[in-house]
Amino acid sequence: MATEKPRFSVTFSDDSYRRIRQYQKDNKISTQSKAVARLVAIAIDEIEKRGAIKNTSLYSSEALDLARDYDHKLDSWGRKQVRTVADNEMARCAAELSEQQEQRPAAPPPPAGEGVRYIIPEYFGRVSAGSGQPAADERPENAHLTRQPPRGASYIAHISGDSMEPTYHDGDRVFVRATVDIFPGEIGVFSMGGDQYIKELGDGVLLSHNAKYPPIPLQNDTRCQGRVLGLCDDRYFEQPAGGLA
Hints:
- By secondary structure, the chain is an alpha+beta fold.
- Helix content is 29%, strand content 21%.
């Protein structure tokens, strides 16, 4: 019979299997599956009473409910809207955190030759300098720099495409400050139609620096996710003389 209840397989030792059969018989339980389920429930209750485990989920019940709705109740358009809202809110939170960090006194530069590492998130899913790159749900990795990044940098992004040449090239890494608002003439990271772009903000359009790419008109769902602060080149990863401490 079809069921929506979670299913899984489990293997028992001969001794455990014998004890389960005996428990089933003693308690007049109709099936072995029900006997196993009851034993598992008893064991979990006992462990929780002892305080050995609590709620072990990494996510709240509300987040799990939202994830189920996302997978089973939304069509592709609805999922795209949820992704856009989530991206915008994460950018807003990151921008606020970046502003808080900027208000702190700047740390003095490290002494010459001292192996100090600066840690900053790095996203390896590339941002399009072209016709658009699908936005990915990606977790960053920590980049360890040996030079201090530009003030206000929130993360490192990778560029895909040649539309921003000669300013930036395919495969370049750039520092980005998370923000939801930039001025015309500044280069930013934008989301639009489920894609991500790195472009210069113009008057109602996104501009490429490569003349072969036409301007892209802003849409209702166009959102700024960050301002590009500059190139993250190999100098930021060079080890000082004598290596890292």
